[in-house]
Design goal:
about 375 residues; alpha/beta; Rossmann fold; nine-stranded mixed β-sheet; binds S-adenosylmethionine
Length: about 375
């Protein structure tokens, strides 16, 4: 039993079953034993200690294209004199390091740039310092200094695989009320339990975006934590005339289903088996995030699939360019391109939500007036 599992079991014995939200929050962010707090979990299957990988860790091209996206927007915004570039959950700092390598090609952009990281993990902050030493670190968007929140400075925000790490709750539809799925203890093992049926405590946005038809046994996932961050982010972008890219796995239209999952050493494991030792995530409901942004007054572009977004930004051209410069690495670069964009790899499952202040020009990478690019339900949940 992991030390955290013993503490969770003791808490359940004293206080009763834990909501999935509280279980996930403890498993990921407990200051002593939370998954992200003391370790660096990124790595290929061959790396000792690596549990999963992410797009910026797959290829430098991901960060380069996101960096070019920022420069393009800044240029079309008439080159504001101060830009705060904020990343939520920067992991090892690889994405920002790749973005900044592109940014230095445009000195008028990079010279005035201020980089801010929102990161709670002390171990990952150390990693980020190695790659982006000049960044400034903050616990939440709310603790950004007043000059970032209220200045004339423009804000650009990037979040890659951040929202999927924020806790969720699960609710089972019964046809006669909802039963929340909780974590209980049975024979010294953590098990799922269900509360008695009751009226749901969904937010107004979640309620408005429930699927139109549901049958008994269907599961809805909700996340007060994700909604709160999206509200903070939207308020910041409205105040500072900013824009954000949110990239993650998830779905663009209301869906039912259980997407709560745990990963360790690149294998799926039971989410209750090893709290603190396995990564826990759930798919992101982009419809909810987009609606929160729109309610705040932002323009939300229809969600794009990661593959088409990166290709629209020039992924194929960049891959060819890199392969020409280093022919010996050509096969590796083309396989990285496929990993990021192929429909059966990250290309369809991962989505990109772009939101912007209404005064800003259209964001690159999104096709004008396109419907949201959805993935069949069986591929997502
Ligand atoms: C899956 S990793 C993604 C890392 C990186 N964006 C990448 O693509 O490689 C999730 C990141 O979010 C951070 N994180 C998780 N929960 C957080 C929270 N509540 N507040 C701030 N950062 C958080 C983690 O420490 C980690 O840096």
């Amino acid at each position: 039993m992991t030390p955290l599992k013993a503490r969770i079991a003791a808490k359940i014995q004293t206080d009763g079953a834990l909501s999935l939200n509280d279980y996930m929050a403890m498993a990921l962010s407990d200051p002593d034993d939370g998954y992200y707090m003391q370790r660096v979990p990124f790595g290929a299957p061959t790396d000792a200690g690596g549990d999963f990988t992410t797009a910026p860790e797959v290829s430098q091209m991901f960060g380069e294209l996101v960096g070019a996206w920022c420069i393009d927007l800044w240029d079309r915004m008439d080159r504001p004199s101060t830009v705060n570039l904020i990343e939520l959950g920067p992991g090892r700092g690889t994405l920002m390091a790749d973005m900044l390598r592109v940014a230095v090609q445009v000195p008028a952009f990079s010279a005035q740039l201020q980089v801010h990281f929102i990161e709670t993990s002390p171990a990952l902050r150390e990693e980020q310092k190695k790659r982006v030493p000049k960044a400034r670190w903050h616990e939440t968007l709310d603790t950004l200094p007043p000059n970032v929140q209220h200045d004339d400075a423009v804000t650009l925000v990037i979040a890659n695989e951040f929202f999927d790490a924020l806790p969720i709750t699960q609710h089972e539809y019964t046809g006669n009320g909802w039963r929340e799925i909780a974590v209980d203890i049975e024979n010294d093992e953590l098990v799922y339990a269900r509360t008695p049926p009751h009226a749901p405590a969904f937010s107004d946005v979640q309620t408005a975006l429930l699927p139109t038809t549901m049958k008994s046994g269907d599961i809805i996932e909700a996340s007060a934590g994700r909604e709160k961050v999206m509200q903070q982010l939207s308020a910041l972008l409205m105040r500072t005339r900013g824009a954000a890219l949110i990239i993650d796995y998830g779905y663009s239209q209301p869906q039912t289903g259980d997407s709560f999952q745990a990963m360790r050493h690149h294998e799926f494991v039971h989410p209750l088996a090893e709290p603190g030792a396995a990564d826990l995530t759930a798919h992101v409901n982009f419809a909810v995030l987009a609606r929160i942004a729109a309610n705040a007054g932002l323009h939300a572009h229809p969600t794009a699939q990661q593959g088409s977004f990166l290709r629209a930004l020039g992924l194929d051209q960049r891959a060819t360019q890199l392969a020409n410069v280093t022919p010996e690495a050509g096969n590796k670069i083309m396989s990285e391109r496929d990993r990021l964009a192929a429909p059966d790899q990250m290309g369809h499952l991962f989505k990109v939500l772009g939101v912007r202040h209404p005064d800003l020009p259209a964001l690159a990478g999104f096709v004008a007036n396109a419907p949201p690019e959805e993935t069949p339900a069986e591929e997502t949940l």
